[in-house]
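Input set for joint prediction.
Command: fold jointly, output tokens.
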Amino acid sequence: MSISKSLTNSQLLLWTGQQLYPNTPLYNMIFTFELSGKIEVEIFREAFRLLVQHSDAMRTVFEVVNGVPQQKVLSELVYEMEVMDWVEGEDFEVWLADRNGRMFDLSRCLFDSVLIRFSEEKYVWYSSQHHLISDAWSASVLYRNMAEIYGHLLNKTKHKISEITLFNSYLNYEKENHKKANSAIQFWQQKSQSLPQTPRLYGISKPKDNIPPTQSQRIICDLGLERSTRLRALTREADIRAWTEHLSLFNIFTTVLFAWLHRISGQSELAISTPAHNRPTAAFKNMPGVCIELFPLIHSIEKNDTFKRLFQRISVSSLEFLKYAQSGMVSPELNRGINVVLNYIHATFEDFNGIPVTSNWLYSNHADAIHDLRLQVVNFSATGNIQLYFDVNEAVFDVTLKNRIKGHFLKLLDAFIADRTQSIFKASLISEKEYQEIIIDFNNEKNKMSDTLEPKMSDTFEVSDIFMSVLELFEHQVKNNPENIAISYKKENCTYSDFNKKINQLAHYLQSKNIRPGSRVAIYTKRSPDLLVSIFAVWKCGATYIPIATDYPMERVQYMLKDVQADLLITHRNLAVDINTDGLVLNLDNEYKKIRKNIDTYLSVKSDAPAYIIYTSGSTGKPKGVVVSHKSLSNYLQWAKSAYITKPNPTMPLFTSISFDLTVTSLFLPLISNGQSIIYEENETGADLALLDVIEENKVDIIKLTPSHLALLKGKNYENSLIRTMIVGGEDFKTDLAFSIQYSFSKKIKIYNEYGPTEATVGCIVQQFNTKNTVQKSVPIGVPIANMQAFILDDFGHPVPQGVVGELYVAGAGLAEKYWQRADLTKEKFTKKHTALAPRMYRTGDLARLNESGQLEYLGRIDQQVKISGRRIELGEIEAVLNTHPLVKNCVVTLQAARNETLDPQLAAFYTGTKTAANVLRKHLARQLPDYMLPAYFSYLDTLPLTKNGKINHAALPVLNSAVSEHIYVAPSNEFEEILHELWSEVLEIEEIGVHDKFLNVGGNSLAALRLVTRIEEAFDLKITVNKVFEYPTIAELGKHIEAVILEILEQEANQ
Amino acid sequence: MTNTITTYIEKEILNSPDTQLTDQDDLLGSGLVDSMGLMRIIAFIEEEFGIAVPPTDMVIEHFMNIEAISNYVLKRQTIDG
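tokens >
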């Protein structure tokens, strides 16, 4: 018995891995050798006995001494190799599966060897070792020596078994090498510090698990003789040729692997692990034992990479790898987070003492859980036919995906072989079958409905050139249900018939004002019956309406009016004061009598004019108008009616801003469904809290709102609410919010997540929230609505494989016509480049993936567009306006994460130039931008941090809490202010709030206001409404208000 | 110089002092030395002869046999020196 020795670094990792999974054959290295010839069984057994006797690795066992694993070599290990005759009719695969799953007792014997006789001329040698004592190279050393010893015993010739190198010598070498390998240690230390994050293969995030599953499956891919031959031929070309053919092939497979990983994960910085065999010398090349160690290869993929460019970088890094990959360097840190391994195996198994052999490397169907994929490149029999083994973790790769990866990899390998000067992005990855599934079937009208929506929704409708416009659909309701209530506003109700009369009268009046087909009429009113009357009247004249919210700053309003060249502005008296327009203004209050004098006769002018133009934030500094046709609008609303309206006479509130296309649903859906629209007017101050009134009054059964709205409702019980249908849109809908809402309302409530940019008319993709199968962080957005199609494409315009993140494109009947007078932008965004998929598509700029269940998931933006409370903001627009300030030289505006889940993320502006007071800059912006686009923080910087490529480095910008905020700080000056200051700090989670800071500017939102009010009521023992927080938006003002309220209470008490 | 290189390869890579390597023996093509072994040889000549071998120089032409290696080292020494 020899002395105990410590484990090599490589063995230590294996040992630890095995301890984590004591009953899993993670590291069983199993080979079968099919021998087609006569075997002398007793000589075979004797040969194996000698092999064990002369290989210290085979006799090595492991034990824990004082908590530390040790290895020692048994001087004698008695092992009688099993020989069995195979019983005909039995299933060999079953026997193998059982044998492969056997665990080794690490303290006794770490190998297994069986000779199975199938016939006199056919044997199988089953040989398996634990990885702690062997690796692939070692397996071939054992095989070759076994064959040699057998041959010598058979022929009774002399042989020198002693030439098998002892593993003990490697143990010494590893220790010695480590002592003098300073530069290598340094090299790998540096590498371990620059490991990128773990890429998500096919967009799949592995479920987090304390003991992640090791179940793995091997997918074998035969490259075939022709492809293998072409690969070999390539290795002789000047730009490919490395020192050896093996090295050239290794470089080719590494290149294709990196290209593939990038294409299926979208990640540019990537790392894989690859083993070094660590047998540089002839002696180590004839030694059983484990020498391999895993080292990382790190590369970044660039947009203009060709296979050749990538190959060149990889060739250089392979040389570095070979130089520094030395025995004893490996550590857990070195490969941290790397989920892909490339194992290029040199080992071969040639004939067994003249007997032809077929060798198989069997799989225990388990592998280290961290390894989502191990790509093994093998050519055991040296026949020239290279094989790829994809060993894939089953928690990541489901059945469908498993069957696809081979094809995707080969597409890229073949592209490399065909023309390595081509871009790594040029070849499409998906097969015809996948194309059929994710492009054709996914967008097929028949398939859309069944999955996500109620059976009822299968009554599809055709949108042809002859279609019912929303106006016609409304008139249909007027004709059928004239006496039903169409509109309810404050305490007034209005029947369909009366409503229609008002519309007709206004329409005739508009005609007298020269409103014709194609005219553009801006509507600048609060939410009111007049708003709806105006819209329909505009349509009756064949004209287009442009909604402009009344809380927009005047400069923005003026810009829109000028940009859209409005022929008329419809407004109310109190709003019209500031408007300065060259065009006509129709003040409804002033001209009420004149309008009422008009006849109430049917009027409907045929027109191809668009239904509306809605302005959205534009990255160049000015908002842009999206032109939507009646056909598109009708497609959405007819679908919405069929999907959402499940009972007669639906009641729906109109309570969101008229400038957002989200509100289009609330504007028209009830009025084409024989329903009732309940109108909630904006209040005078700050935040729009109409939702609270909607819920409080409890009159509606269907509602369209944003996730931010829902957050306001979180945590209370709404069992008595009449609401049965919620349509949620405008921004990312988090699953936990959806759950919370589903449970706080009646169980019968249906929640729909509706996705749709203004450019694709309100909603074009939808998903009903399902408590049972929503596992993602956000509710998926689902599948396209009727007559709409969705595609996820890469930068090259190829459909990405299922699961992979790409840009979402939408097409179909609901596409907007164009951007108003922006031909260039229209051409760019409404692309006609992918006519094979659809004649015209809108590039959403949104990132999405098609998940395993065939639902689309929204994953954020490609560009700088952000959303706060469902409102779309181009950061570039804020930057462009800020840059026009004379003291600002350059600037960047970012969205900083919310400090907690009840607060909104906040805009922060960083600028260079001359340090300027924040309120000066804010005022400058406020002239052109609505409140929700004003940054909460302005921070002066000497220079903006740049990336290597000269772009602004967003990651290097300071975060909000450490940013120097430049609002003018005024400390609380009385008791009221002090208490309020404390409450504000608590709710908003910041310390430095001045008493003149506006609530909205320091991160407040409606939700925070609700929380603040509860605390104020407790602290001062009084009742105040949420509106007061916005009416008195600073600590100072609110303090005065509370002081006044308390005084009043005291006076009342004194008088009693 | 060739002697030093020959001795290193015979002793440290081939582990067999009996092998008689000639200066023209094809190291890589014959399979006597593999990529990893050649890297050890490069590390050895870098240290022994005080040169640095840049990756762009790591081509077969410079390392196919002992003669080529010696020539390369001489060339490199003039450049570096």
